């Protein structure tokens, strides 16, 4: 089973410089691949795939273009991966699964430093706080102990470093081998996701909606202002370009762009961190199973009034992450049917209260007298229903 980890790294100045060079080179290599193949196409030559291209590049191209020999000082697998990426994008286009690939640009933050595990014997060393990467040496990790270091059960296969808003992020693919059977005998957990509160667990734990938090609102407000500023600057530049030609630039626009990216990243980080914390506390007790509603996020997004709140909540990413984590630990995940009346049903006797209003915060059963918080009653029903599908 493959698991992907993404984490921020803390390279030294020299390492950052090296990573930047690799990122630039990978962009260059990607674009060269597209460019050469396009020229070949126009001249009626056949398409070169990544493998042929790489051979041609190392033998013929570099001999004919000695100015580009600097690329040889970099980690060759990173360049090769750029060819493979371009090849994949082209093939997707040939199969009509995508449009013609764009050239990669600095402005869009594209390009990456790639590393791979070469052979069966080679190990990419990783410790709690650092990872050893080709050409870079030991690179410090910001989140200690996040990437598994137990090499008997986890093997790092490959990864990438990307730069975003002035920071460096590494994603790496880890294969889990010799799976340990999970001794999951804890109380099962039902989760009710909502807009008012983010999540309510069947054991009564309540996770507030972070978007209503003052700090987050403040940041979101700042983001909106910056985005308005950015679009003003962009329009101004466009007008100037018409007057002065394409050479007109706006340095402040680039600054605003970076600020927008930073603020946006900040929000994403807050959300990711919160969701990870919830997931960690859900799996900590090793429940027999975890159950949640199979929300149709797409349908909900169509509703204008709900869509904003829902997209902010990131229900979808939360569910995907939770399922992945449970799968990794061997905890079954039940997805209860979308039309299951989980809030209307009494958890104690199964009576269906048809006239339940949204404003009724307490569920009171007219038949057996059972009284419980509305959301806890719902999450208990989600937990115990037999009408479910397994998530994996
Ligand atoms: Zn009842």
Write the layout of secondary structure elements.
Blueprint lengths: L1 E9 L2 H30 L7 H15 L11 H19 L18 E4 L13 E4 L3 E5 L12 E11 L2 E10 L12 E5 L3 E5 L4 E3 L5 H31 L6 H34 L5 E4 L3 H6 L1 H10 L1 H15 L3 E4 L25 E3 L6 E3 H11 L3 E3 L2
Helix pairs in contact: 1-3, 2-3, 4-5, 5-8
Bound molecules: zinc ion.
The site of zinc ion has 8 residues, from loops.
Structural features, described:
With 392 residues, the protein is of the alpha+beta class. Among the domains are: 2-176, no CATH class; 212-269. The chain has helices spanning 13-42, 50-64, 76-94, 214-244, 251-284, 297-302, 304-313, 315-329, 374-384, and strands at 2-10, 113-116, 130-133, 137-141, 154-164, 167-176, 189-193, 197-201, 206-208, 290-293, 333-336, 362-364, 371-373, 388-390. β7 and β8 form a beta hairpin. α1 (13-42) crosses α3, α4 (214-244) runs antiparallel to α5 (251-284) and α5 (251-284) crosses α8 (315-329). The longest helix is centred in the last third of the chain and has 34 residues, at 251-284. It is globular and about 85 Å long. Zinc ion is lined by residues 346, 348-349, 351, 365, 367-368, 370.
